[in-house]
Design a protein that fits this description.
- The complex is a heterodimer of chains A (378) and B (344).
- In chain A, 69% of the residues lie in helices and 5% in strands.
- In chain A, helix 2 packs across helix 13 (302-322).
- In chain A, strands 4-1-5 form a three-stranded antiparallel β-sheet. A two-stranded antiparallel ribbon of chain A has the order 2-3.
- Chain A folds into two domains: 1-39 and 329-378, no CATH class; 68-325, ABC transporter involved in vitamin B12 uptake, BtuC (Orthogonal Bundle).
- Mean pLDDT of chain A is 88; it is low at 361-378.
- The relative contact order of chain A is 0.21.
- Chain A starts with a strand and ends with a strand.
- Chain A is mainly alpha-helical.
- Chain B has 15 helices and no strands.
- In chain B, helix 2 packs antiparallel against helix 13 and helix 3 crosses helix 11.
- Chain B is globular.
- With 344 residues, chain B is mainly α.
- The termini of chain B are far apart.
- Classes of the chains: A mainly alpha (378), B mainly alpha (344).
- Chains A and B meet through helix 6, helix 12, helix 14 and strand 5 of A and helix 4, helix 5, helix 6, helix 12 and helix 14 of B.
Chain lengths: 378, 344
């Protein structure tokens, strides 16, 4: 008979050992899958490490790939903290890219500070509005935000596709090759976001901005009234209402904040990377869903999101660089999924103590457990 | 989409390309065509939503429907290409394979949320990310080179009693494939199971008040395991409908978010099989509207029509989330919460 006892407090070593064990198990499961499907697991992992992190120029590309994940990861982490499940990072990022590319096209030839600020603002507003729809419905109409944010993802993708492929909109390039093949109108060169050279690697402005936002969020959650409210509403909404907190307003505000962050991610996609609204590529990338993985692996800690985003960015960067018959599509997503599944499952070992007990003992009164800790039989 | 369109036209007996014979004239009108495609595109939604309904009735929320459908789709496509035997047996094997794989994917969710006590929402999302369009289903499809050619053995339309040409009801009732007929039987069976059988009563008790059910001697977690896995088999079956009936050539993410719509349908249908059937066909009609209208040369922006099912989901959800609807027919009370015996 196996018996689970909830741990009253977690020893320090477990906080390191459990995630490490989970990652190792996930890699092992991935290795089994790779071997079963006729690939050399060790070689694949080594290639991933090389192309993601250690080879020439790899880290620069990894940071670029990590940037959208950083934003969507923060987007999910912020909302999930209050147990508001914003799955709409995807659509909010797309709307941010729509807004930012319009700003980039309009402001293109102005001073770079104004242009960049304009693009960030436009992206944030569009993302916030898109998330705000679901936030308002959740707050005042009690509508399940998981489904609404998801449905809005598809609507946003269709909208962006319509702007570039289905109409002669402001976002569409009508001259040159654009007359033949529908494509987005590129932003002016003056609107490209700056990047910083660190010698070994280059960091785009988007990644820097995302890291600053992460630190800001960390502080907000740790030591402001809003951060406290988020925690209380997340843990016990009824207690929060009795304490006089405006929970509806907080839900709406948090969703808008979460969407604004994803929207800035969209702005960074236009300003840092693609310089154009590219709906097809954005849809294919699936940044929003990967952001949920990032947030969950980082246990909703904004600072940890930065590092997990780099890790996941490295994986997807390597996946892109290596894609071919030996390195099938979907492998990176599978590995990310395995990491997530095993990390989630592994938390059991951090939260509960697992005991083998004799059968007749297991039936004893729960009050027998040390410190009165609740016990369960499974 | 083009493949789906040509296929639809080939399947629909009253498509403009076929010769008009007696009784077919009336079946060529827009209403009948929309009704046919509502059923056709609604069937996978119906199967997946019925599965999710069973799962949610036990108190387990599984957001991994999209992932389970895609795993079922991959399994069905692989089996259809590689299994040997006469066509009908290959298709049968493909359907069984999709159910097994869908069930196994759901089992992973069940283990995570019931035994490992992972948050149900997060675990379901993890399942969809692991198995979904950019994950395992895509990995397996490219490892097995499923996209190299169309699926050879597929679900054929049956002409039941030779009545397929009967005006209006012929194509709707007597000219469907096996899976559609199965889904109709399933709706009836599940209604009986939930509301007339003892096990169904126990199931509802588990979903509404697990502590009470436990006190009555019902094995709460056993019910939850079984119904989560059965939900997964039905999602897998719904996924199989895509390679076997809708889009013969594999492409990643072939279900195109239908798993999420199925989730919304369960809410829309108030966790009742007969209402879920109505909802599934409504969504089926909407998701095929752009194809149907294009085929008739009606000029409407495709992206607008493609957005309609999603927008409609939101509107419907808002309506059913109002206090009035919630009081009358709400979600199972224990939905989304783990049952820990000591916490009761």
């Amino acid at each position: 008979m196996i018996r689970l006892e909830r741990r009253v407090d977690q020893p320090r070593w477990l906080k390191v050992a459990v995630p490490a064990g989970s990652v190792l198990t996930a890699l092992l499961a991935g290795a089994v899958l790779l071997s079963l499907t006729g690939h050399d697991a060790m070689e694949t992992y080594q290639l991933l490490l090389e192309r993601g992190f250690t080879s020439q120029g790899a880290f620069t590309a990894t940071l670029t790939a990590a940037t959208p994940l950083l934003f969507t990861g923060l987007c999910a982490a912020v909302a999930f903290r209050m147990r508001v499940f914003n799955i709409g990072g995807e659509g909010q990022l797309i709307m941010g890219a729509v807004g930012a590319s319009a700003a980039g096209i309009a402001l293109g030839d102005g001073p770079v500070v104004i242009t960049v600020l304009g693009m960030i603002l436009a992206g944030a507003i569009c993302g916030a509005v898109w998330a705000g729809i679901a936030g308002a419905l959740k707050a005042w109409a009690n509508t399940n935000e998981i489904i609404t944010t998801l449905m809005l993802n598809y609507v946003a993708a269709n909208l962006a596709t319509y702007l570039v492929f289905g109409s002669k909109s402001y976002w569409r390039e009508l001259g040159g090759t654009g007359a033949m093949f529908p494509q987005g109108k590129p932003i002016a060169e003056g609107a490209h976001w700056p990047s910083v050279d660190f010698g070994n690697f280059t960091m785009g402005f988007g990644f820097f901005l995302g890291s600053v936002i992460a630190i800001g969020l960390f502080v907000v959650f740790r030591s402001t009234r809003f951060g406290f409210q988020v925690q209380v509403i997340g843990d016990e909404p009824r207690a929060a209402r009795y304490a006089g907190m405006r929970t509806k307003r907080a839900i709406f505000g948090l969703m808008a904040l979460s969407g604004a962050i994803a929207g800035i991610g969209g702005a960074s996609d236009v300003g840092d990377t693609r310089y154009v609204l590219d709906p097809k590529a954005l849809q294919q990338a699936g940044y929003g869903y990967a952001g949920i993985v990032v947030a969950a692996l980082a246990r909703l800690n904004p600072i940890a999101v930065v590092f997990v985003a780099i890790l996941m960015g490295g994986l997807s960067n390597a996946g892109r660089a290596l894609q071919g018959p030996d390195f099938p599509a979907g492998l990176v997503g599978t590995l990310q999924g395995l990491l997530l599944v095993f990390t989630l499952g592994g938390e059991l070992f951090a939260r509960y103590r697992i005991r083998r007990v004799a059968a007749e003992h297991a039936a004893a009164d729960p009050a027998d457990t040390p410190g009165g800790a609740p016990a369960v039989t499974a | 989409m083009i493949a789906a369109l040509t296929h639809l036209l080939a399947q629909v007996p009253d498509a403009p390309t076929t010769v008009l014979t007696s009784g077919r004239g009336i079946n060529d009108n827009l209403f009948v065509i929309i009704a046919i495609s509502a059923i056709f595109y609604g069937t996978p939604l119906l199967l997946a939503a019925l599965g999710e309904m069973l799962t949610e009735r036990s108190g387990i929320l599984n957001l991994g429907v999209e992932g389970m459908m895609l795993m079922g789709a991959v399994a069905a496509a692989w089996t259809s290409i590689h299994a040997s035997g006469p066509g009908w047996s290959v298709v049968l094997q493909a359907l069984v394979a999709s159910m097994v794989v869908g069930g196994l994917t759901a089992l992973l969710h069940a283990v995570l949320v019931i035994t490992f006590r992972v948050e149900q929402i997060v675990s379901g999302l993890a399942i969809t990310i692991l198995a979904g369009a950019a994950g395992l289903s895509s990995y397996l499809a490219s490892t097995w080179e499923l996209a190299s050619g169309p699926v050879p053995h597929r679900l054929d339309l049956l002409d039941v009693g030779g009545l397929a040409d009967t005006p209006v009801v012929g194509p709707l009732l007597f000219h469907q494939n096996v899976l559609t007929y199965f889904s109709w039987l399933l709706v009836g069976f599940l209604w009986w199971y939930l509301f007339r059988s003892r096990t169904g009563l126990h199931l509802r008790a588990v979903g509404e008040s697990p502590a009470t059910a436990d006190a009555m001697g019902i094995h709460v977690n056993r019910y939850r395991y079984v119904h989560t896995v059965i939900g997964g088999t039905l999602a897998g079956l719904g996924g199989a409908f895509f390679p076997l009936a809708i889009i013969p050539l594999w492409s990643d993410g072939v279900t195109g978010g239908r798993g999420w719509i199925a989730l919304a349908l369960v809410i829309f249908g108030f966790w009742r099989p007969e209402l879920i059937l109505a909802g599934a066909y409504l969504f089926g009609a909407f998701s095929s509207l752009s194809l149907t209208l294009q085929a008739r040369n009606v000029e409407v922006p495709t992206q607008l029509l493609d957005s309609l099912p999603y927008l409609m989901t939101i509107i419907v959800l808002v309506v059913v989330s109002t206090g009035w609807a919630r009081r009358r027919v709400g979600a199972p009370a224990a939905l989304g919460t783990a049952y820990e015996r000591e916490a009761r």
